[in-house]
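Here comes just one.
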Amino acid sequence: MFKSIHHIAIICSDYQRSKIFYTQILEFKVINETYRAERDSYKLDLAVSEHSQIELFSFPHPPKRVNQPEACGLRHLAFSVDDVQATVAQLTSKSVECEPIRIDALTGKAFTFFQDPDGLPIEIYQI
């Protein structure tokens, strides 16, 4: 029925700060950027891969994110990488704090987490 995830929508509190984070630190390529004056809102389409995107939105005064990791709803984003240790080194060189690397007890694969500027947990998972 479903082929893949097309996009993930993220609402940020500071558009310019998040735009820099996702484009310069995480190095996602900009597909399109739109400003909607009637909503005082930006929408930034970012390529994650050939088949998936992030839609980064800004809205005036968005409510805060639920901060409990076990709350109902989307828990985190996870991106696959070839080498978690190398990716952590690259993120750390750009002043992104990462949690210690762990090994998934079920798969034996390395993974860790870091956060975007609004505290959204992002996982990197070794394939």
